[in-house]
Amino acid sequence: MIAISSAFDGGNIDILGIDGLTASLRIRKDNAADFLQWFYFRVSGCKGRALTLSVQNAGEASYPGGFENYSAVASYDRQTWFRVPTRFDGKVMTIEHMPVVDAVYYAYFAPYSMERHADLVARALTSPLVTLDVPGQTLDGQDIDILRIGQPKEGRPALWVISRQHPGETMAEWWVEGFLDRLLDPADPVSRALLDAAVLYVVPNMNPDGSRRGNLRTNAAGANLNREWKDPSLERSPEVFHVRQRMIDSGIRLCLDVHGDEALPYNFIAAFEGVPSVTEPMLALLAEFKERYAALNPDFQTAHGYPVAAKGQGNLTTSTGYLAEFHGVIAMTLEQPFKDTADTPRPEEGWSPERARHLGASALDVLLPMAGKL
After folding, report:
1. How many CB atoms are located within 10 Å of the residue 27 CB?
2. Using an 8 Å Cβ cutoff, are 188 and 357 in contact?
3. pLDDT tens digits, residue range 343-355?
4. What burial class does residue 200 get, using C-beta atoms within 10 Å of its C-beta: 0-12 exposed, 13-18 middle, 19+ buried?
5. CA 252 – CA 372 distance, rounded (Å)
6. Which of 62, 88, 101, 138 would bridge with 93, disulfide CB 3.0–4.6 Å?
7. Distance (Å) of CA 233 to CA 162, 173, 238, 239, 257
8. Between β-strands 40-44 and 93-97, what pairing exists: parallel, antiparallel or unpaired?
9. Do residues 99 and 46 lie in contact, with contact meaning Cβ atoms separated by under 8 Å?
10. Residue 88 φ/ψ, nearest 5 degrees
């Protein structure tokens, strides 16, 4: 008989029953909230055996449209991830796959573990350009890591990148990995020029507790961090409380909040057009950012995204809404797909860690000509 487990960092699945090579499964809700969508588990004892894995509550997911025209990811070594045949009838999602080794991992998207996060931070700190700030801990006692790259100096705007407010959106930290690796490459002329023009602050993972627990959108207290920015608290959302204060202290001029969208098969920006105090110069810089990104990386586009809120109708509890309204920041939310990109598809891998890393690296070329305008 096969065995199934999710008892590891970021794991999420409940086993309803196993009958030979067929398993009936359920995705667990976030530990203190009703969100559910993220799954990550291992099947063992399966080499050369045709598996049928049925997720019975997929139709009850927070975003059931995320499972339409979707293929789950699988890996034998947890390094290389590929897409496997997946079907969804509106209620049940079924993965059908014959592994070629004796254990295989399946996930909603390629996971980004807290161990890999620790490696990313440690690798960044080998650069003399990087300083680590730990302003506090999460409710589970994990450090909140902020990396400062470069030196604050009069005339150098503070540019912030934050990631994984929603822990199940793991493509966000893959994006940050690509961004940081290029930013810290001493041979890269764009990186050197950008760090001469600005100081960068990067939060690779805003939600360590939700990441480790296998949550989709919330922290240990059940808080959706991207609805906590207007009034965060140490009791409910210390992650936002501490990072927001550091942003205010740094004199922030731009913030890119990196996310993933379950349903839309595109990379796009959602921004601050709906905040009451929006100005034409802010909108011009937003348009410049999006146009440059689309010109530099074909995986990014501007035709598809969320409906734009009318002025005065923006959500001021999100990082983008709060920072734009109360601090005049060019604040943007970058969304990436869980599926493949509709305009630039690669069916075997879909949207993937490597593609997210390249999208992150491309952002340096977008930021450099804008730094002097902030």
Report:
1. 26
2. no
3. 999 999 999 999 9
4. buried
5. 14
6. 88
7. 19, 24, 6, 9, 20
8. unpaired
9. yes
10. -140, 125
| Host H or E run for residue 26 | strand 22-26
The residues, any chain, with a CB within 8 Å of residue 279's CB and separated by 6 or more, are: none
* Cβ-based neighbour number of residue 349 at 10 Å: 18
**CA distances for 168 relative to 77, 210, 215, angstroms:** 20, 8, 6
- List the one residue out of 141, 145, 178, 149 whose CA is nearest residue 162: 145
Longest CA–CA separation in the chain, Å:
67
In the beta sheet, which residues pair with residue 96?
A: 52
* Amino acid, res. 306: Y
Question: Mutual orientation of helices 280-296 and 353-371 as an angle, nearest 10°?
Answer: 130
Cα(62)–Cα(219) distance, integer angstroms: 16
Asked about 349 being catalytic, the answer comes back as no
Structural domains in the chain, sorted by start? 3-107 (2.60.40.3120), 114-371 (3.40.630.10)
The pTM of this model reads 0.98
Helix axes 189-197, 171-183, angle to 10 degrees: 90
Residue 269 phi, psi (nearest 5): -110, 135
Relative orientation angle of helices 189-197 and 353-371, to the nearest 10 degrees: 50
pLDDT in tens, 279-327: 999 999 999 999 999 999 999 999 999 999 999 999 999 999 999 999 9
Amino acid present at 351: W
Q: Which of 173, 228, 335, 349 is catalytic?
A: 335
Q: Given this model, what pLDDT does residue 156 score?
A: 97
Distance, in Å, from the CA atom of 370 to the CA atom of 374, rounded to the nearest integer, reads 7
Q: Is 189 left (phi over 0), alpha (psi -120 to 50) or beta?
A: alpha
C-alpha separations of 330 from 54, 230, 231, 284, 327 in Å: 44, 17, 20, 10, 9
Q: Which sign, positive or negative, has the C-alpha torsion 229, 300, 336, 8?
A: negative
Helix (H, G, I), strand (E, B) or coil at 246: helix
Question: Counting beta carbons within 10 angstroms of the beta carbon of residue 328, is it exposed (0 to 12), middle (13 to 18) or buried (19 or more)?
Answer: middle
